[in-house]
Amino acid sequence: MNTCLFKYPGQATQPLLRSPRLFRQATQLLTVAALAVGGAVSDAMAVDYYWRGNGGTDVWSNLGLWNTLSSGGGSNPGSFLSGDTFIENGVTGPMGTAYALNNNATVTFAGGTLVLGTDGQISVKATGTGRARITSLVTTGGGLIVAAGQDSIVHNLIVDSFNNQIGVTRLSASSSVNARTLNLEIGTLSGAGNFAVDTNSAAGRTIFITASNAVNYTGNFNFDRGLINFNNDLVSGGSLTLSGTAVVTLDQSVTFNAVTINGSSLAPGFHSFSSLNSAYNAFFTDGGSGGITVGGAGSGSETIGGGTLASPAQGPAASYGLGEGATLVKNWNFGTNGTIKTKADLDAHFNYHD
Questions:
Q1: Angle, vertex CA 39, rays to CA 35 and CA 41, nearest 5
Q2: The whole model's pTM is what?
Q3: Do 92 and 67 meet the contact criterion of CB atoms below 8 Å apart?
Q4: Do 75 and 50 form a contact (C-beta atoms < 8 A)?
Q5: CA 119 centroid distance within chain
Q6: DSSP bridge pairs for 206
Q7: Confidence (pLDDT) at 310
Q8: What is the distance between the alpha carbons of residues 126 and 130, in angstroms, rounded to a whole number?
Q9: Which residue among 78, 212, 273, 274 is buried most deeply as judged by most CB within 10 Å?
Q10: How much is the pLDDT for 98?
Q11: Helix/strand/coil (H, E, C) string of 133-202?
Q12: How far is residue 109's CA from residue 159's CA, in Å, rounded to a whole number?
């Protein structure tokens, strides 16, 4: 039995299971999945605002640069509310983070979810000891994240929850003249969209990537240019592809479900830096360490999910023509091999009612 659960304004966050007896019956059933359709789940009175700035000194904290209509009409927000959505689709120009120029400060986007569209751009203006932070970022067709604050210094963007839904999100450390570095630190990474290095990013300028939890990410780190440094022991449910002039500074132990280098697929298992550097010298900076493990990064494992687009579930794909294009946000699979294995699991996720 497959059931779709939708969250409506005012609805309780936990479904009602009317009898404990249903739990015993449910252990014989397949996955019960909750799907969020249309790419957004919103609360009552939530508002969408569109970016109307045009780069330069225009930054995300300026209320006057957000409008309820993408054409620029409508109204501006009176304040930034966590329930509202803020969309940068590149209609008028890039959106800058607030400035934090080497000042030990963290500037956090004060609104709700920030959406980066296909032609949208986030210009990172936090440098050195300064950090720009986004609590929830969703990409709906790619977009560009670029170092744009000061020359000859690292630019820092922290994203607590990054749902790279579709398309290609391009990263750029800017041109060689600017001598900038981009540091992207992600808490939880999900989605099926890809990452790439933008064509305006200089070959010798490093892009650092950290992802603390990427097991539910199924996209491709697809690099055909640029200098990449995975800055933690990243474990991704997606893949890594290196081609063209891409170079990786490997000094960590990273894991992907599939890896392709110069058209050749790596066999499952661990590949040390020394073996990779020997076989694919052009793609790895000399003097590295660690290695790459192929397989085992959440492959085949299911999760219950957090119930939101920012915290989706890992589970079966849509079937019978239902749920195509939707995001699985809850995955209740009853049984010893499922996500709800015991009565304690059941109690944690369901309310009972006679």
A1: 70
A2: 0.74
A3: no
A4: no
A5: 17
A6: 227
A7: 52
A8: 5
A9: 273
A10: 96
A11: EEEEEEEEEEEEEEECCCCCCEEEEEEEEEEEEEEEEEEECCCCCCCCEEEEEEEEEEECCEEEECCCCC
A12: 10
Taking alpha carbons only, the member of 257, 302, 250, 256 closest to residue 272 is 250
User: Which regions in the chain score pLDDT beneath 70?
Assistant: 1-44, 296-303, 306, 308-326, 336-338, 341, 343-345, 347-348, 353-354
Q: Rounded to an integer, what distance in angstroms lies between the CA atom of residue 116 and that of residue 123?
A: 12
Token pair for 205: 């300028």
Can you read off the two tokens belonging to residue 232? 């933690």
For residue 217, what are its two tokens?
């990410």
